[in-house]
Amino acid sequence: xxxxxxxxxxxxxxxxxxxxxxxxxxxxxxxxxxxxxxxxxxxxxxxxxxxxxxxxxxxxxxxxxxxxxxxxxxxxxxxxxxxxxxxxxxxxxxxxxxxxxxxxxxxxxxxxxxxxxxxxxxxxxxxxxxxxxxxxxxxxxxxxxxxxxxxxxxxxxxxxxxxxxxxxxxxxxxxxxxxxxxxxxxxxxxxxxxxxxxxxxxxxxxxxxxxxxxxxxxxxxxxxxxxxxxxxxxxxxxxxxxxxxxxxxxxxxxxxxxxxxxxxxxxxxxxxxxxxx
Length: 277
Ligand SMILES: Cc1ncc(C[n+]2csc(CCOP(=O)(O)OP(=O)(O)O)c2C)c(N)n1
Ligand code: SF4
Fold this sequence. Notes:
binds iron/sulfur cluster, Rossmann fold
């Protein structure tokens, strides 16, 4: 097993949920390497935030992008070289606030990338402002009297955006998370894994999650069943929180579609773009 360690000093707060994500991604990558995936064919793309520091702590090829722009960057990498496994580390702020348009459109296009959304339900690196998925009433730097808005449900958003792989995991269930990450990376097309990742410094919900999460049965689901599972928890507190792979469907990737167009136009990229754009 490769340690994938780097010499970068780790600056996460002790007890941060990101440590669980790091352990899980190392496990998933090692499993892929054992199955013959070449290390040089794995590319990590980071956003900005605590979650995005993950690339510093992994001895793998990586590209550090801008806040809310990592998904667009990753989609470009995947389009330029279809042999690569492209993995994005992004926070809920980057994915659902700054970068929400890129998230929605990459899912719709079925770009062949894996998005790992570390959901600590606030902007952590900037010390606790509310995001689109913060629970109503969350008190923080930008909402001293409590967040006034209802949270959106990122899984339902991905479902409506036609994402072809949608899962939820918990950073303290490392083996379960590692297996979902591995499945997501192997999936051809856009895979989205929401990782419930406690930020112990600004929104410590470890006990809450430990009491509420459960692993849903691993089985094929109808659209209605998948949606029901995604909406079982309303992000405001009530209800149990299912984890697992909720939805997976094979459909043509954006890269395959573009490659076909390029072939049809005998490699004339200009003609291909005229048609496609
Ligand atoms: C376009 C843009 N807006 C705001 C910032 C400031 N900023 C840097 S990190 C950060 C918070 C990141 O939160 P999130 O994306 O949820 O990741 P986390 O730190 O929680 O992992 C913000 C708002 C920025 N760098 N760029
Ligand atoms: S601020 Fe929160 S998310 Fe960031 S390292 Fe500390 S505990 Fe983790």
